[in-house]
Structure formats: structure tokens, C-alpha cells
Amino acid sequence: MEIYGPCADNLPLILNDVLDRIKQLSSAQVASGHPKLYEHLIGRVKANDSMTEKCQRKGYPATPESALRKCRDAVGIRVVCNFIDDVYRCIDLLRDADWCTIVKEKDYIANAKPNGYRSYHLILDAVTPYQDIDGQTPGHYFVEIQLRTIAMDSWASLEHEMKYKHDIENPERIGKELRRCADQLAACDVQMQTIRQLIHEND
Fold first, then answer.
1. Which of 2, 144, 169, 172 is catalytic?
2. Residues near 54 by Cβ (< 8 Å), separated by ≥ 6?
């Protein structure tokens, strides 16, 4: 059974629309003399099985309403930026956009998780031309966006690899090394940001 019900066909269209809007924000920044917003973008529609498992894990009935209204990450986008300032610049532009509203945000850059994870998470309420699960057109769909630097993204990939590999030896030691690595990368991100500001301080 398709957990997204009659909205299933809309989700890839919404993903592409939001990706295009973020690309347009970056193009407008470049056209006005600012650096591009990001290094690369990736996106996905959460697979039917994964969303069903998530609903069950959270104690929700496996229905389109649970998948689209309670979980809120059926459509997910990751924005990978060169510098920390680019992350916050992108967030400010999304905050000002007329096609979406930020309904939830968590700043794991300023407040890193205990294991060292850093990223900025947003949930957008995006207005779309597609009918939503409540029968409204224009429809409202939630989109999860994660914004991070290249260094944060590399670290998160490594941590994800460790989390899902269950036969590693000495996980405590690797966890400590990962935490130390996260702190070093965070210091590096700040240092690179400072150098960039020094280069452009007379612009």
C-alpha cells in the first residue's frame, strides 16, 4: 500500500519545485554580486517502506495523514555550503521567501549534539499548486531542509557509516575520535570563514 495515498505523485514534483526555488535564490545572489549560496544540493522523497517504518516506530497509524502531517520529512533536501555564513544567508532568504514559511528550526551548528553532529534543520510549510492531503489547492506540504558546510557533511557521512555498521571493534574509541574530529572541523570552518572575511573586508 502506498502510504502517501493520493498525494504520492505530487511529492517528486514538490521536491523538484523546491530545489528549483533554492537554485533561483542562489542565482539571484550571484547576479547581485554575492557569492553563490551553496556548493551542491541533494534531495529525496522518503521511500514508502521507510515512511511506514517511521510511522510505526513513532506510534502513528500508517496513513497519509501521519506521513504528511505528523512526520513532516516526506520531502527532504540537503543544502551543502562552502562556509558557515552561507548557511545562515540561505536561511535568511528562505525566511523572506513568499512561497514558504519556516515552522520549525533547530540550530545544531551553534548547539552541536553531544556526539559532535552539526547542521541546521528547518521544516518548511511550502505552498504548492498541488492538492494536499486536506483537499486544499494550492496545497500545503512540509519539506525538511538540512543545511551544513562541506566539513559538517563529510563528518555526518562518516558518523552515519559507523552508526549502521554493527560489527566494528572498539566503537567507544571511534566515537571519541569522531567527537574530536568534529571539534577540529568546526574550528576549521570558523577559521576559513574568518579568512574569507579578511579577503573581502574592503569590498
1. 144
2. 46, 71
* Whether residue 65 lies in the annotated active site: no
Per-residue pLDDT tens listing for the chain (203 residues): 699 999 999 999 999 999 999 999 999 999 999 999 999 999 999 999 999 999 999 999 999 999 999 999 999 999 999 999 999 999 999 999 999 999 999 999 999 999 999 999 999 999 999 999 999 999 999 999 999 999 999 999 999 888 877 778 888 888 899 999 999 999 999 999 999 999 988 87
Q: pTM, whole model, 2 decimals? A: 0.92
What is the amino acid identity at position 157? S
Contact 144, 72 (CB under 8 A): yes
